[in-house]
Amino acid sequence: MDEIINRWHMLYKGNVLSQRYLKGESLGKAELATLNEKAELWREQLMYISWFMRFVNPKFIG
Fold this sequence. Notes:
Strand content: under 5%
Helix content: over 70%
Largest sheet: none
Structural class: mainly alpha
Number of helices: 5
Distance between the termini: 32 Å
Low-confidence stretches: none
Radius of gyration: 13 Å
Number of domains: 1
Number of strands: 0
């Protein structure tokens, strides 16, 4: 999960939970479960080149 969150934060600022997680703050079970679900979504989005290209060059898709 760390690698996915770090890669996501290279492109985006993430969300409050991911920011807290990367700062080393303690998260509860429910917060970790939520972050885990979000990280899985981010992993899938990072895998798809067409989705990634929207960030890199929005005019490319347009």
